[in-house]
Amino acid sequence: MWRPSHGRTERYTDLAGELVRLKVDVIIAPDNPTIAAAQKATKTIPIVMILAMDPVATGFVGSLARPGAISLA
C-alpha cells in the first residue's frame, strides 16, 4: 500500500498511523522525518530505512551491529 504525502510533511504522522491501523507487514521510510513518524506510530511493525542520516546519532537504532535494539527518547 502506497501512502504519498504529496510533499506535506505535516501528514507523516497521520499516514504512519493509517499504515499501522491497516496492519501492514512492513513500513518503508525514505528519510529521517518519515522514519521518526513511523517509529512513533509503531513498536512492532518493522521499518525499512532508505536514506537514514546517521541512524545511531538520531536514535533510530541502538547500533549498526544490532539495529533492532532501538532506543527512542
Describe it.
By secondary structure, this protein is an alpha+beta fold. It has a domain at 25-58. The protein is built from 2 helices and 2 strands. Helix 1 (12-21) packs across helix 2 (32-41). The radius of gyration is 12 Å and the shape is globular.
Summarize the structure.
With 73 residues, the chain is α+β, with helices and mostly antiparallel strands. It has helices spanning 12-21, 32-41; strands spanning 27-29, 47-49.
Which SSEs are present, and which pair or pack?
Blueprint: H1 12-21, E1 27-29, H2 32-41, E2 47-49
Parallel strand pairs: 1-2
Structural class: alpha+beta
List the secondary-structure elements in sequence, H or E.
HEHE
Computed CA radius of gyration, to the nearest angstrom: 12 Å
Major sheet attributes: 2 strands, parallel
Number of separate helices: 2
Q: Strand order across the biggest sheet? A: 1-2
Mean pLDDT rating: 87
Uncertain segments of ≥5 residues (pLDDT<50)? Answer: none
> What fraction of the residues are assigned to beta strands by DSSP?
5-15%
Keywords:
73 residues; single chain; 2 strands; 2 helices; alpha+beta
